[in-house]
Design a protein that fits this description.
Structural class: alpha/beta
Strand order of the largest sheet: 1-3-2-6-8-7
CATH class: Alpha Beta
Number of domains: 1
Shape: globular
CATH superfamily: Uracil-DNA glycosylase-like domain
Order of helices and strands: HEEHHEEEHEHHEEHH
Distance between the termini: 42 Å
Radius of gyration: 16 Å
Strand content: 5-15%
CATH architecture: 3-Layer(aba) Sandwich
Number of strands: 8
Largest sheet: 6 strands, mixed
Oligomer: single chain
Length: 209
């Protein structure tokens, strides 16, 4: 009996996750515990894109599971969403680390980003979201190179026919309490945008690196 389109999409995403877990395109595969492909629905209308896994994510194999992840869950709940209804991933799928084990989290290098972004492109092509929400500077730079997050956060941007909403990374609110209110306000923009009718024939944002 042929698979339903929905089940085919779920299976295709699972196969893509398996490929990402085996990836050795950059040296990060030698220092990671495991790759972190993403989590959520293959039918998500919203994709959240962060920077890269940290130590907790590297150990669990799931993005945004530390303190910043808990705050992200709170932000999602504030607009009536859960992880099961969206898709969450990062630009880079393996933890960038410096120093001896367990090492320190660091920003991914340009070469690491270039090696990894084809996976993100495939995720976007498969899921085809209505809205891409970038979390932090690295993700913003991928979709909107040269733009400053202080200038564009909370303001929807059109990128190749897809709406991209730049936001601060949830981790920032852990260090600056005043940014908590900013993130909560910007998240309300997500609710406003996704109440609109889906765009027809939307294109997937192309790689900017």
């Amino acid at each position: 009996m042929p698979c339903k389109p929905s089940s085919s999409k779920v299976r295709a995403l699972a196969q893509l996750h398996a490929q990402i877990r085996r990836c050795d395109r950059c040296p990060l595969h030698r220092t990671r515990t495991q790759a972190v492909p993403g989590v959520g629905s293959a039918h998500a209308e919203i994709i959240f894109v962060g920077e890269a896994p940290g130590r907790r994510e590297d150990l669990k194999g799931e993005p945004f599971v530390g303190a910043a992840g808990k705050f992200l869950d709170e932000l999602l709940a504030s607009i009536g969403l859960s992880r099961d209804e969206v898709y969450i991933t990062n630009v880079v799928k393996s933890r960038p680390v410096s120093g001896p084990p367990p090492g320190r989290n660091r920003a991914p290098s340009p070469d690491e980003i270039v090696a990894c972004v084809p996976w993100l492109t495939q995720q976007l092509q498969l899921i085809r979201p209505r809205l891409v929400v970038t979390l932090g500077r690295i993700a913003l730079e991928h979709f909107l190179p040269g733009r400053k997050i202080t200038e564009v956060h909370g303001r929807p941007q059109a990128v190749d026919g897809v709406t991209v909403l730049p936001l601060y990374h949830p981790a920032m609110a852990l260090y600056r309490r005043d940014w908590t209110a900013i993130l909560k306000r910007d998240f309300r923009t997500i609710a406003r945008l996704t109440r609109k009718e889906p765009q027809r024939g939307r294109r997937i944002p192309q790689s900017r690196t």
